[in-house]
Design goal:
With 178 residues, the protein is of the alpha+beta class. Helix content is 47%, strand content 15%.
Length: 178
């Protein structure tokens, strides 16, 4: 029977049997079926469940779960493809470092096409003095609320650019940092 162990760093190990894990992994908690995982999850904070889920390879990261049972069920299903290690019981789930690599890969977006409105706005914001709201409106033909939404949503959230906003001579100015 396959048994799983989870250590204090949320690394999941797979073994052929529970005694094998208990003997080799001090300080870890073991489970071999969804009911045992549910019992363990009932004692863990919700943030730990999210952290465990986000560290698993090949899963879509989440901010939170609707319930502990949903979290435990999804984690159980996701770890079923993990295989037992040959001799030593090393962590089979991705370590915390793996999730930061996945986040960096997700943030990396392709650059804007040449001569697109996105490229024009980025060029204006990369100038040493930045780009004023009015200059961006003229370059794109957008209204002020559209420019603000584009800067927040597309540049800030989707492309991951750090855009600063400030006032110069009573006029709103935006600039890209770094």
């Amino acid at each position: 029977m396959t048994a799983f162990a989870i250590d204090t760093d949320n690394n999941i190990s797979v073994s052929g049997s529970s005694p094998q894990i208990k003997a080799s992994e001090n300080g870890s908690e073991t489970f071999s079926n969804p009911q045992e995982l549910d019992k363990l999850a009932a004692r863990w904070p919700g943030a730990r469940l999210v952290e465990i889920w986000n560290s698993l390879p090949g899963v879509e990261p989440v901010q939170r779960f609707t319930s502990r049972q949903v979290a435990a069920t999804r984690i159980w299903k996701a770890i079923q493809h993990l295989k037992a290690a040959g001799g030593a019981q090393g962590p089979q789930g991705a370590a915390k470092r793996g999730s930061s690599r996945m986040k960096a890969a997700r943030r990396a977006r392709p650059a804007a096409r040449e001569n697109s409105k996105t490229a024009k706005v980025i060029a204006l914001l990369r100038q040493p003095a930045g780009g004023s709201l009015k200059a961006i409106m003229v370059a794109t033909g957008w209204q002020a609320h559209s420019v603000r939404g584009f800067i927040s949503g597309q540049l800030g959230k989707k492309m991951g650019l750090r855009v600063c906003s400030f006032q110069r001579n009573g006029e709103r100015v935006y600039a890209i940092k770094g």
